[in-house]
Amino acid sequence: MKFKHGIVLGSFLMASVLACSGPKGESGNPKIGFAVFKYDNTFMSGVRRAVDKAAQGKAVVLTQDSQDQQAVQNDLVDNFLTQGVDALIINPVDRTAAAVLIQKAKAQDVPVVFINREPEEADIASWDRVYYVGARAADSGTMSVEILLDYFKQNPSADLNGDGMIQYVVLTGEPGHQDAVLRTKAYIDTFAASKANGGMGGQELMSDTAMWDRARAQEKMAAMLTSYPDRIEAVLANNDDMALGAIEALKQAGYFGKDGKFMPVVGIDATAPGLDAVENGTLLGTVLNDAASQGTDALNIAVALSNGTDPAAAIAVPLTSADGQSAGRYVWVPYQKVTRENYRNFMNK
């Protein structure tokens, strides 16, 4: 059996044979289909671990890789529904394609919990059995700049040209992804607010997409160093993988060596490799995007919906609306700054 796009379903069918034998499986626990946008994404690997851990003893989770292709994810959802799952957790490849996935699930009355990539508000509102678990992307951008501003306040010599502005470059996630857009906009807004209040401002020298990828970020950072020799004072990256790629390029350019040449780099996610880089002093800071809480909350909501119980009672934070001001079907997991001073508090996350 193959997807209509030619991709073999082998691993999916194996999981189905082992775990799917009826509406709730042999254990009597609900079956949850979990479609991940891409398996080798570091942050989503953390979410997958959290979902698996939270599911122990209360759900059978069938997790599949969408391979960063929306067509593949659509087919995965079709097959989950054919296998009789009780709920879906979807990390969408393309958040604007959520309506199609919701229609598929609604036709079989299977509730959907979207995670990490926020669909359009109208799509969430289209059915009362659709939920979203994630974090407010703009907050992570604000916190990233605040980490930089604190560093420059404590280290005035980091302002290489003494102009009271931080000349920085940006490595962004994929174009159009709401996290990439909102985080990058928040960088600009936070620098502007700082300058308006008598603090340091910021000047973006260059921005380029590295698609959340470490190797691409290393290439982009090397090009930026060539384009702006001795002018870049800081690097902001939309996630830790890209921040670590930038650090590799900086190392090749003579930074982080025995002579003490340093470039402040700030990432987002507080992944395990990111925390290691904070510990060894190459990554100035990061912002915890709480994969453990997001995965746990998504699984618990999916189980509650499968069992016909109240999702609000299954999680530790309140369900709110999209704007966070009233009851609804959104879970907003807060970000937290991570620096050299507190990174140990997050090592087990």
Question: What are the defining features of this structure?
Answer:
349 residues; alpha/beta; 6-stranded parallel sheet; 4-stranded parallel sheet; 41% helix; elongated; disordered N terminus
Query: What is the CA–CA distance across the termini?
Result: 39 Å
Radius of gyration: 21 Å
Mean pLDDT: 92
N-to-C SSE series? HEHEHEHEHEHEHEHEHEHEHEE
- Give the low-pLDDT segments: 1-22
Record the strand order, biggest sheet. Answer: 2-1-3-4-5-11
- The helix content, as a percent range, equals 40-55%
- Oligomer state equals single chain
General shape: elongated
Q: What is the overall number of helices?
A: 11
> What percentage of amino acids are in beta strands?
15-25%
Described by strand count, sense and barrel closure, the largest sheet is: 6 strands, parallel
What's the total count of β strands? 12
Question: Could you characterize the architecture of this molecule?
Answer:
The chain is α/β, with parallel strands linked by helices. 41% of the residues lie in helices and 17% in strands. It contains 11 helices and 12 strands. The strands form 3 sheets. The chain has a 6-stranded parallel β-sheet with strand order 2-1-3-4-5-11, sandwiched between helices. A 4-stranded parallel β-sheet has the order 7-6-8-9, sandwiched between helices. β3, α4 and β4 (112-115) form a beta-alpha-beta unit. α8 crosses α9 (240-252). The longest helix is centred in the middle third of the chain and has 19 residues, at 178-196. The two termini are 39 Å apart. Residues 1-22 have low confidence and may be disordered.
